[in-house]
Amino acid sequence: QVQLVESGGGLVQAGGSLRLSCAASGRTFSSMGWFRQAPGAERESVAAISWSGGRTYYADSVKGRFTISRDSAKNTVYLQMNSLKPEDTAVYYCAASTAWVLTTEARSWGQGTQVTVSS
After folding, report:
1. Confidence at residue 1, expressed as pLDDT on a 0 to 100 scale
2. pLDDT at residue 52 is higher than 90
3. What residue ranges in 1-119 does DSSP mark as E strands?
4. How many angstroms separate the CA atoms of 84 and 9, rounded?
5. How far apart are CA 60 and CA 88, in angstroms?
6. Nearest CA to 8 among 71, 91, 83, 75?
7. Residue 39: beta bridge partners?
8. Torsion of CA 43, 47, 49, 55, to 10 degrees
9. Average pLDDT over residues 20-24
10. Which of 68, 72, 112, 113 holds its CA 20 to 30 A away from the CA of 40?
11. pLDDT tier at 31 (50, 70, 90 boundaries)?
């Protein structure tokens, strides 16, 4: 059974930092990523990484502030979020796929974790 378990969300002031974690189990994935959905908005991609680590992606809105990484031994992907802005407020979802997670519909999803950035 595939499981993606997220942790690390919370409330932080603008300019602060949070680190999200997503632990995967149940199968081997080729790539993992983070998406987010703000109230009234569509879900959007934030960052992604291939399991080999050789390929990464960042949305323009987070480049230079967020860093995605993975720990192969722990089957876990992280999203380090620095210089957070109120517009980063959203539910953040972890996703994983045996293909490139950003372009395939065949994804597994985590339950989501709330990130709230106060001004």
Report:
1. 87
2. no
3. 3-7, 10-13, 18-25, 31-37, 44-50, 56-58, 66-71, 76-81, 90-97, 108-109, 113-118
4. 12
5. 13
6. 91
7. none
8. 120
9. 97
10. 68
11. very high
